[in-house]
């Protein structure tokens, strides 16, 4: 197989964007291509009638409670946007936002609450579980409503749009999206004899081992075990490596870990460690290792990029570094994940008011402000028109956008909430106890058994 050609522009990436039809879940092959500007949409006519059985006048004075998982800068910005919504919305809706500090606490508080919020920013797997318990509002009628709907859903990328689509039911809407990827020191790699980033596992092995060999020959014996990939055991990293080897965690609607491709993926990674071409240390963090040429590769997410840039600046380093996907033999891997807006069942008026807030937040102007504060993906192609300066000053962020056609969904199962933690723990265990590469199959077998137990 020939690898996918990486797009050079975010708008090309959005060839995989979501279709406006409410009748079917979109596939990448059926998604329409986008132009550089929004597709003109017909203005609502006097004959247009909402399918939502709420009179507009009934929205006046409606109060909605929003729970968010953030604190600090994100929470402050969100509260500012909530205040602006209260001042500007024409319906007289009043929203209030309360921080639950993190996603886990928000999930637990929602389960324990006597009175749930009207709207929450939660993980997609949480939304799926709440949907199974019939707690959340199906947003499909709102999205495609002639009056209150979104006119240009094809402006939202497929990999963002379809994460919250379950058959004909839309359990949530994207709120934030990030990705897991590798960072490569291009300058150091060039000095080691490599003119390009690794394009296959064998290339990755060769580069990591040569970087390790280089550090064994320098004058600092304390870094003799360093040089290649700084091992990261987060669940999304483990999942991405499985996908890069054409493996995964799903089969026939359930979990399956013990497969030849998964064995190949984890065996490859463990052999890198056995050869000291991949390493970890409690004495130095990944970003410091990367910016001081002790690691040729590290794993990162979008929100890490500013910290990496500051790290190179602090070292007064002129090294050029870039984002790359997890290299596979046929197709590379990039896992996209993040939070979503979930509306809970309440009254028709509160549900519509919550939806109108979500729609307002997804506007280009608010989307751009969130990107500049969080450094995550813009949720709409049209938002890029407002991010020209940001794009110019954040080249690695732009590189991730160009990789978006390779983006993969997370498993669309409520049990992924627990299984992904198990995956990360199992992956971490392989390194913590120094599991030999020949024992990888036993670890994957245990993962498979545990995944089936905790997903019952």
Total separate domains: 2
> What is the terminal-to-terminal distance?
37 Å
| CATH topology label of the largest domain | D-Maltodextrin-Binding Protein, domain 2
What is the molecular shape?
globular
Uncertain stretches of 5 or more adjacent residues: 4-42
What oligomeric arrangement do these chains adopt? single chain
Rg:
23 Å
According to CATH, the homologous superfamily of the largest domain is: Periplasmic binding protein-like II
- Helical percent range? 25-40%
DSSP strand content: 5-15%
- Structural class, by secondary structure, is alpha/beta
3D structure, described in words:
The chain has 456 residues and is α/β, with parallel strands linked by helices. The longest helix has 17 residues, at 416-432. The model is unreliable at 4-42 (pLDDT under 50). The chain has 2 domains: 54-177 and 337-408, D-Maltodextrin-Binding Protein, domain 2, CATH 3.40.190.10; 179-335 and 411-454, D-Maltodextrin-Binding Protein, domain 2 (3-Layer(aba) Sandwich). The strands form 3 sheets. Strands 1, 2, 3, 6, 7, 10, 11, 12, 13 and 14 form a 10-stranded mixed sheet that branches. The chain has a two-stranded antiparallel sheet with strand order 4-5. It has helices at residues 10-13, 73-88, 103-112, 124-132, 140-143, 158-161, 186-191, 201-216, 235-244, 260-274, 286-291, 305-314, 348-361, 364-374, 388-393, 395-402, 416-432, 440-454, and strands at 63-68, 94-99, 119-122, 165-166, 169-170, 173-185, 227-230, 250-251, 254-255, 278-279, 295-301, 321-324, 334-343, 407-408. The chain is globular and about 75 Å long. Helix 2 (73-88) links the parallel strand 1 (63-68) and strand 2. Helix 2 packs antiparallel against helix 14 and helix 9 crosses helix 17.
